[in-house]
Write a structure and sequence with these properties.
- It is a single chain.
- By secondary structure, this protein is an alpha+beta fold.
- The chain has a single domain, classed as 2-Layer Sandwich (Translation Initiation Factor IF3), CATH 3.30.110.
- The protein is built from three helices and four strands, in the order αβαβαββ.
- α2 links the parallel β1 and β2.
- The longest helix has 14 residues.
- It starts with 12 loop residues before the first helix and ends in a 12-residue tail after the last strand.
- The N terminus is likely disordered.
């Protein structure tokens, strides 16, 4: 039997709704602009997810890709799960064993 430690298996509708409600009160801590998804944005999001678990970003209008594509690329590069994409904002979640902040389940 495989060890089941992936975030995707924990993302029930109720869990996602709780994450969305927590993220609603948080400011966006990162912006993706004209450079798009690059090494800088990936490393910044990766370190933020390690220390916070739940991160909201803002995608500027001058970003070469749309918000959904940007979020999917960042999620794939960091191993995070997209919680929601609304307007020009995206929220990511990645479970962290070292810095457990969210005790939801």
């Amino acid at each position: 039997m495989e060890k089941n430690d992936g975030v995707k298996n924990k993302m029930t509708a109720a869990f996602r709704a709780k994450l969305r409600s927590i993220a609603a009160g948080q400011p966006a801590i990162m912006q993706v602009g004209k450079d798009g998804v690059g090494e800088n944005s990936v490393s910044t999001l990766d370190s933020a997810l390690t220390s916070r678990e739940l991160v909201k970003i803002s995608v500027l209008k001058n970003c070469p890709t749309d918000v959904r594509e940007t979020a999917e690329a960042l999620a794939a590069a960091t191993g995070a799960e997209i919680v929601t994409v609304i307007g020009r904002k995206a929220v990511f979640y990645r479970d962290s064993d070292e810095h457990r902040i969210l005790q939801l389940i």
